[in-house]
Structures are given as C-alpha cells and as structure tokens.
Amino acid sequence: MKVLLIGSGGREHALAWKLVQSEHVTDLVCAPGNAGIVDIAACADVRADDMVGLIALIQRDAYDFVIIGPEQPLALGLVDVLQEMGVKVFGPTEAAAQLESSKSFTKAFCKRHNIPTADFGTFSDLKEAKAFLKTMTAPYVLKADGLAAGKGVVIAQTLKEANAELEEFFSGKYGKASETVVIEEFMTGQEVSFFALSDGKTGLPLIGAQDHKRAYDGDKGPNTGGMGAYSPAPVFTQEIMQTVLETIIQPTIDGMHNEGHPFVGVLFAGLMLTQDGPKLIEYNVRFGDPECQVLMRRLQSDLMELLIAAEAGQLDKASPPVWFDDPVVNIVLATKGYPGDYKKGSEIKGLEKALERKGVTVFHAGTKSKDGKILANGGRVLNITAQANTLESAVETAYRFIDEDIDWPEGFCRRDIAHHALKE
Ligand code: AMP
Ligand code: GLY
Predict the structure, then answer these.
(1) Whether residue 211 has its Cβ less than 6 Å from ligand 2
(2) Which of 161, 237, 292, 410 could form a disulfide with 11 if both were Cys (CB 3.0 to 4.6 A apart)?
C-alpha cells in the first residue's frame, strides 16, 4: 500500500518507524515530516493544518491509505473530505472529533451516557461563570472549550485568581476556543493515558502510559504538550483497565454510534485514578505525544494491519495486539524557553551515537536538517526512548545517552521522568 502519514512530531516519527516495518506498507510519504522521518520515508512539504495543500497532494498522488497524526486536521474535517473523495483514511470525522475539539461537547456527552468524570458547568457568560465559581471549592479548574494546544486548562488556587483567569478567557485569551468555558470539580489521584482503537462499533484496547505535562521537575512549572512518558504504568492494573473499558471506553463508542457520529480512530482517554475509581479528565482523538513513542516501541504486532481493520469496521475480527513486556521510557528534549518563547536554529550533535547504545531509539520532533547538520526547529525537539528489562534500567540508559553523547547546550529535559513508578 502507498500510505500518507500526516504530521511532523515525535508521534509521527514513531508511527513512521513502525509503519515502515509493516509488510502492508510498500511506500510511505509523510507530510510534512521532520529531519528524522526523512531518513525512513519520503517527505512532502505540506503542513498538517494546510487543508487545501493536503487535499491537492492526495488528489495528485493517489494514496491507498491516509493516517492523520495530529488533532487540527481532524477537527477541521479532513476525514470527511477524504471519505467523500473515496480515499481510505484512519481517523474520526469532524463530528466525532468533537470529543477532543469541544470540552463542553464531551462533558455533556459524558453526562448523557453516565460516564464517570468531574462535575462541571459550561458557560459563555462571565457573570454566570463567576456565580458558579462561588459555589465551588478551591482549587478551581477552568478550561477553554476549544483546542488550545494543551494550554487551555488553568488550575487556580484562589477564587480571586480564578475570577481573573475567567475574565482573560472571556476577553479572548484563546480566541474562539475560550468563548465558552468549562468549570470543573478538582479531582485528585494519579493520571494515566489510555488508548483504544475504535472502528465505530468495536473497541480494541491498546495499553496505558503515563505522561509528564509540566515543564519542570517535580511536576512544577507551566503545562506543556508532554515532557516524557513511560509504559507500562504500574498503577494502571489489568483490573482498572477492565473498569475503564466497561465504564468509559465502550459506553463512549456505543454513545457516539447511537448519536449518529460513529467514532473511528484512536480514542485516547486522559484518566484520573481517583479513590472512587477511574474518571475521565478529557478525551483526545489521536495518539498522544509523547505517549505514542513508547506505545510504538512496545507494540510487537503490525500497526498497519490494526489500522486497516479499524478503517474497514472489522476490529471484531482482528487479533488483539501483542506487546513487548519490557518497559519503555521516552524523555523529551526541548529548546530552553519552551513552552514559552524559544529560539530556533541551534545545532544538535551526537545523535548518531544512539546506534551504539543498546535499547535506545531517537524520534525527532521539531528538527530540520541543513548542510548535513541537525538543527532545532521547534519547542519539543527530540524524543529519547529506551527499552530495557526494568524501567529503572531503561531510564538510566536514556539519561546516560543524553548526558554522555548528546551535545546541545540550548536544550533541556526533565530529570525525573518515571519518578512515580520508580518510587513504587
Ligand atoms: P486536560 O487538557 O483537560 O487534560 O487538562 C490538563 C491537565 O490539567 C490534566 O492533565 C490534569 O493534570 C489537570 N486537570 C484537568 N482537569 C482536571 C480536574 N478536573 N481535576 C484535576 N486536575 C485536572
Ligand atoms: N501527551 C498529551 C497529548 O498528546 O495531548
């Protein structure tokens, strides 16, 4: 099959790395890709949010199958357009992608279908929102309704701070995305990212992972897209996973189907493991980044086969994926300043030494190559993944490679990835 993969992050490099190992993939093109992907697949210079450019590319080059990595093209309805063109595509329609693109949609959906999640209110009026806040207790959780690159959530410690944030939201902090605001009850517990494939009717569980959303060690600093991940997460037991499938995942797939928006794609549940059981924090409608990188390294089965079955509505006949038992960790290297302002163009040296490090695979994110050099070209730049027979050893292997081989003074990483699991 001639396959087009859309995106340019570490997630897409990991997907590409796995896809080129599939016997079903004869030809892989990535749009736009990055300086790592270009070593294993052809790259087409079309951005993931350039709908017109993507449609023109797909019309011109006749792909057998299209895989969409990031959320923007899904929220913009690329799947709907491709389906009308008769192109096979893996990902949810615009209506089904609302599970990520509208938090108010998802919260109301959960309520209709009795899916456990934090209590909430939805507001498009500042006065009403402030009145509701008064009825809640600290800490206050405020969320922009629409897509805000993982930055539209604020946890305020005092009512004063929460009110000030609300004012900012309603005066256009995130443009259209914060014209509607969701206010939620604060939940406590450990967070887990859980992934399942859906073909519209059947859910096929993948595995869980833990992400690290804050920029700095000790879960301090601003929220980011994710600074590192590992799998398996010991807190996410088989029993909890079964509960999640029964109380969250399958009711969601059934509910979307019954409401006329069958969900086809990756259902990524952000979960809080509370004392009252697992609850949904939010849905994403795609693989997580940096979680996908650890999932792809643990996946033993053919990824393409699973995606073909999901697109064809045949997950009920698919054999469950097989996973490597050995833990995998992924440590994100970001440009200093991320998630705020940062400079582009600094040179990264030493990546080729990964070949001599057993268990290490590097996935690029914001990189570009120029005159044979690898340059930083974004906030999150590299993903250093390592696999070993224990999580401790995987973590040690990854940090040793970063400290001894990588030469990039303009970059930084968290030093405590997997701390939750290592403590236990
Ligand atoms: P989200 O983008 O909805 O996943 O939120 C980003 C982060 O904010 C989550 O990973 C949690 O750490 C935190 N968060 C979101 N909603 C809640 C909540 N209701 N209670 C506690 N923490 C939350
Ligand atoms: N790692 C969280 C996300 O991909 O949204």
Answers:
(1) yes
(2) 292
CATH architecture of 2-91: 3-Layer(aba) Sandwich (3.40)
Query: Which residue out of 103, 104, 186, 281 has the highest number of ligand 1 atoms within 8 Å of its CB and is therefore the one to mutate?
Result: 281
Q: Which phi and psi angles does 213 have, rounded to 5°?
A: -80, -30
Q: How many CA atoms lie within 13 A of 176 on its CB side?
A: 3
- Cα of 317 to ligand 2 centre, how many Å? 29
Ligand 2 pocket member 291 (CB < 6 A): yes
pLDDT in tens, 84-99: 999 999 999 999 999 9
The Cα–Cα gap between 391 and 277 comes to 26
Name the nearest CA neighbour of 406 among 380, 384, 378. 384
How is residue 42 written in tokens?
A: 């052809």
Ligand nearest to the CA of 145: 1
Query: CB of 170 within 8 A of CB of 239?
Result: no
Give CATH superfamily name and number for 190-317: ATP-grasp fold, B domain (3.30.470.20)
CA distance 290 to 310: 23
pTM > 0.90: yes or no: yes
Residue-wise pLDDT for 347-358, tens only, equals: 999 999 999 999
CATH fold label, 125-179? Dna Ligase; domain 1 (3.30.1490)
Atom of ligand 1 nearest to the CA of 118: 19
